[in-house]
């Protein structure tokens, strides 16, 4: 009986999208602070409890693709082709995210976010969570027993690349420049499998004789 379950999931997804679209429209029309959860629920013709069953907070209504972005980042690591290097796979995913966030239709949303301390704080916490999830995926990809400083550092660089590129005059040129630096940093700092640091090209391991 998979069809009923599929219908239920589609209905849930449609309700969630309707709530998010309604909230965003109200926020942009009246201002983020002027609109409450009850206003969103009434306009979307759902109960307040239904809003909270899909979104944990008012801020989450603005970042309704939060989970999609986080899953996309981890899939860029875990789902890339065999032997494809890590950094180019992440660069491709961040490029897609930047295209989404720099579309003309996104400009009013980012202005609203930039003007709201609550939304800026939520975005910062979201970025930190995305970076931690990405670092965990990178460590797992390398078969490391735990997330290393190198994994966390590169993950933070990748997440910050999105914000820096979004604010640049030429987002894609900025992203290319940033990822050249990320690639160079990863080449000399990446841990090998089982946690041993990778040896930079041309340099002999410290324990070997010259």
Automatic annotation (TrEMBL):
GO terms for molecular function: DNA-binding transcription factor activity; transcription cis-regulatory region binding. InterPro entries: Homeodomain-like_sf, HTH-type_TetR-like_transc_reg, HTH_TetR. It comes from the Bacteria. Keywords: DNA-binding, Transcription, Transcription regulation. Gene3D superfamilies: Tetracycline Repressor, domain 2 (1.10.357.10). Residues 191-210 are annotated as: Disordered. Residues 36-55 bind DNA. Residues 13-73 form the HTH tetR-type domain. SUPFAM superfamilies: Homeodomain-like (SSF46689). This is TetR/AcrR family transcriptional regulator. It comes from Saccharopolyspora aridisoli.
């Amino acid at each position: 009986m998979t069809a009923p379950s599929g219908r239920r999931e589609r209905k849930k997804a449609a309700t969630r999208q309707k709530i998010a679209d309604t909230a965003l429209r109200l926020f942009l029309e009246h201002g983020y602070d002027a609109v409450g959860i009850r206003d969103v629920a009434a306009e979307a013709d759902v109960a307040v409890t239904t809003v909270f069953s899909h979104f944990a907070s008012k801020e989450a209504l603005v970042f309704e693709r939060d989970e999609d972005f986080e899953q996309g980042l981890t899939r860029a690591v875990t789902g890339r082709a065999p032997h494809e290097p890590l950094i180019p796979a992440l660069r491709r995913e961040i490029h897609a995210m930047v295209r989404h966030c720099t579309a003309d239709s996104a400009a009013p949303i980012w202005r609203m976010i930039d003007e709201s301390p609550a939304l800026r704080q939520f975005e910062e916490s979201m970025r930190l969570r995305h970076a931690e999830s990405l670092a965990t995926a990178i460590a797992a990809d390398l078969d490391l027993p735990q997330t290393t400083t190198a994994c966390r550092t590169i993950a933070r660089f990748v997440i910050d690349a999105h914000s820096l590129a979004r604010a640049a005059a030429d987002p894609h040129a900025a992203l290319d420049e940033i990822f050249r630096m990320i690639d160079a940093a990863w080449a000399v700092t990446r841990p090998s499998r089982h946690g041993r640091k990778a040896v930079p090209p041309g340099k002999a391991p410290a324990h070997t004789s010259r």
